[in-house]
Design brief:
By secondary structure, the chain is of the alpha/beta class. The protein contains 5 helices and 12 strands. It has one domain: 3-Layer(aba) Sandwich (Rossmann fold), CATH 3.40.50. Strand 6, helix 3 and strand 7 form a beta-alpha-beta unit. Helix 3 packs across helix 4. It is globular. The N terminus and C terminus are likely disordered.
Amino acid sequence: MSAGRGSAGVFRGVGPDGGPARARVLVIDNYDSFTYNLVQLLEELGAEVVVYRNDAIDVAGIAASGLTHLVVSPGPGGPREAGVSMEAIGAMHGVVPVLGVCLGHQAMSEVFGGRVGPAGRLMHGKASEVAHDGRGVFAGLPAQVVCGRYHSLAVPEGGLPEGFEVTARTEQGEIMGMRHRTEPTEGVQFHPESVLTPEGRAMLENFLRTPHRPHPTPLSHPTPLSHPTPPRGPGAPGEARGPA
């Protein structure tokens, strides 16, 4: 059985027996206003979402939470300033599908021995044409998609970690995505939750379609945020942020 939506419109992922199992997504909030946008889209797609700031939970708590998917959010600073993010990615790799967004993507690179450095161009609130491999979060999308970018750091050419492959690039050749070759661990440098990424909702739906093991265990560790970091700054929610 393929993933789809139930009669109530709730997204159902694929369980180990091929049957439906609702996605339970744990989002690590790296103190970023974009986290709200990510959570909202995931909830609209029918996922059960819980949010922990990067200094409010440890790996043991994450492992005991009953998650089926892990999302590591954007945020300011570099991977080493992202609290539990790097450790969480390493611990959940091969256990549940993992998606790193912007800072989460950079943290993923460093976890597995890759490099992160200054981006060739500062991109804050700018859109780029991106070509991709048509798999993972890009499955079923047009060959070229427009993606919103908010970053001053990036995974450079030659800086990809061992075991990963490039999944997306800009017209200038900048790496915009990477994926582990055998496990559902994937990162994107751009922001799928931004209004500058028209196909972002479909990307997140593809992520939720990644097969996972249903967890009956209730979320039981530190109390998750009832609401992620609120949007800051003028304009649309999550569209204003400082350098990353």
